[in-house]
Amino acid sequence: MVIYEGAADYPTIDRWWDIIEKYGVTILYTSPTAIRMFMRYGEEWLAKHDLSSLELLGSVGEPINPEAWQWYYQNIGWEMCPVVDTWWQTETGGIMISPAPGIEPLPLKPGSATLPLPGVDASVVDASGKELPPCQTGYLVIKKPWPGMLLDIYGNSERYNDSYWSRFPGMYYSGDFAMRDLDGYFWMLGRADEVLKVAGHRLGTAEIESAVVSHPAVAEVATTSQPDVVKGQAIVLFIILKKGKSPSDTLRKDIIKHIRQAIGPVATPSEIYFVPSLPKTRSGKIMRRVLKAVASGESIGDITTLDDKTSVDEVKRAYQSLKKAKRGLDGELDRR
User: Fold this and answer.
1) Where in the chain is CATH 3.30.300.30?
2) What single string gives the DSSP state of each residue in 102-140?
3) By CB distance 3.0 to 4.6 Å, which of 62, 107, 205, 240 could disulfide with 223?
4) What is the pLDDT of residue 307?
5) Beta bridge partners of residue 237, listed in sequence order
6) How far apart are CA 206 and CA 217, in angstroms?
7) Phi then psi for 222, rounded to 5 degrees?
8) pLDDT of amino acid 329
9) Distance of CA 93 to the CA centre of its chain
10) pLDDT for 184-235, tens place per residue?
11) What is the value of pTM for the model shown?
12) Given this structure, which CATH class describes domain 195-335?
């Protein structure tokens, strides 16, 4: 195991690749957010290093979109390393759904965590706890006990039961939204409390973000929402563009067209903000509640775990700039 101090992109964006080459690292286990950050800078930094020591690539922390999976597999693993996308939680005590190349090689699907590990009885259910057929989205649950599972919350058994066991009696409620395909493979769609209800349709943030980053100009995106009197919730996107791409109204319209083609008109965002960075925790997770607070004009709250506090200011500036421009346009239309 190699331990280092500091950020992945400091002093240069190829810090990880230098470490892998220097120490002969065999396993790289990181988050989709980090992968998309590296995608933003292209392949030129990778070309400077020999990454042939790598034998396995891992993904953790959030759903990985197919485009990031493919880039990871092709450019970092040179199409010779399996991508092991793992689903688990602190509460589960270990990985629950994941490819297991050491047990049995499985055909991999970019973006899917594949199948539960031996002994793990996972399922996708509707709001009433009824198991859903393939290709329908619902709540991810574990139906039987497993080694390593949490047994209580210290000093607060009531919260333990309420959080994990009361929603679907007899089943562990993960708090995640998921879908199982015709082959039984699990596709993670983000936290259930991050699922947006737009005009009566339930849309996962991961589903929307996967569609957005498949656009050739987009490097990273975070989805949130703001109240809407007609739709209930309106989709708001904060986007980081790839190197060499510049924000414009034409690009904004093209991204919207791309989303409508990928998901449908219901996923049309009401606002798109181009930003240079996104607020993330030190572990690389996007702080969506911060973005939601900015988009909704609410208090941001505690950001002590934020990796780069200037990113919040950048998001605010982008938001205020677009709002100002929009007010100017609305005023001009009123005068006409």
Assistant:
1) 195-335
2) TTB-----TT--BSBPTT--EEEE-TTSPBPPTT-EEEE
3) 205
4) 57
5) 223, 272
6) 18
7) -130, 135
8) 40
9) 21
10) 999 998 888 778 888 888 888 888 998 999 999 999 999 988 888 888 889 9
11) 0.78
12) alpha beta
Q: List CB contacts of 181: < 8 A, sequence separation 6 or more.
A: 109, 112, 134, 135, 187
Rounded CA-CA distance 43/53 in Å is 18
Helix axes 288-296, 310-335, angle to 10 degrees: 30
Start and end residues for every CATH 2.30.38.10 domain found in the chain: 106-188
Q: How many of the other CB atoms lie within 10 Å of CB of 107?
A: 8
Burial group, residue 136, by CB count within 10 angstroms (0-12, 13-18, 19+): exposed
Q: Is the dihedral of CA 259, 213, 297, 191 positive or negative?
A: positive
What count of residues does the chain have?
Answer: 336
Q: Tell me, what amino acid is at 51?
A: L
**Chain centre distance of CA 89:** 15
Where are the domain boundaries for CATH 3.40.50.980 in the chain? 1-85
Q: What is the pLDDT of residues 11-35, one digit of tens each?
A: 999 999 999 999 999 999 998 888 9
- Can you give the pLDDT at residue 28? 97
> What's the pLDDT at 311?
60
CA separation for the pair 100, 324 (Å, rounded): 51
Q: Render 223-243 in DSSP notation, one character per residue.
A: EEEEEETTTEEEEEEEEEEPT
Beta partners for residue 179, in sequence order: 137, 187
* The CATH classification of domain 1-85, taken from the options 3.40.640.10, 3.90.1170.50, 3.40.50.410, 3.40.50.980: 3.40.50.980
Distance CA 9, CA 168 (A): 43
Report strand pairing: 201-203 vs 186-191: unpaired
For 106-188, give the CATH class: mainly beta
CB 97 within 8 A of CB 116: yes
Q: Which residues of the chain have pLDDT under 70?
A: 282-284, 299-336
Whole-number Cα distances in Å, 195 to 86, 137, 220, 326: 21, 11, 19, 27
